[in-house]
Design goal:
Blueprint (H helix, E strand, L loop, with lengths): L5 E3 L3 E4 L5 E4 L5 E9 L4 E5 L10 E3 L4 E3 L9 E5 L7 E9 L1
Antiparallel strand pairs: 1-9, 2-9, 3-8, 4-7, 4-9, 5-6, 5-8
């Protein structure tokens, strides 16, 4: 992309949940994203709807960071934790073109 301009959006916390939640909405301008699992439970991420512990794209260990591979997936990303504990979350930062 040469000198393409990209910018980071403000980090967002997505509360840990025992049911599937949206981690990142679809975004056609997405250039990348990182997801930090700020939890003691595993986070199952799915490129698509309704992540589960048996239907997921990647499992993120407690305290680990997942970075979208390039080129970045621009569709919906959902997540679910192996246990949802109060105060725990995913810290999500999205980078977009423009």
């Amino acid at each position: 992309m040469g000198n393409a301009v990209i910018r980071a959006r403000s980090p967002v916390r997505v509360a840990a949940s025992a049911s599937a939640v949206t981690v990142l909405a679809a975004e056609s301008a997405r250039a990348g994203a990182t997801v930090f699992n700020d939890s003691v439970a595993y986070l199952y991420l799915k490129f698509g709807s309704t992540a589960s512990s048996t239907d997921f794209t990647v499992r993120v260990a407690p305290g680990a960071v997942y970075t979208l591979p390039e080129p970045a997936y621009i569709g919906l990303i959902t997540g679910i934790w192996s246990a949802a504990l109060a105060g725990e979350a995913a810290q999500v930062t999205e980078v977009i073109h423009g």
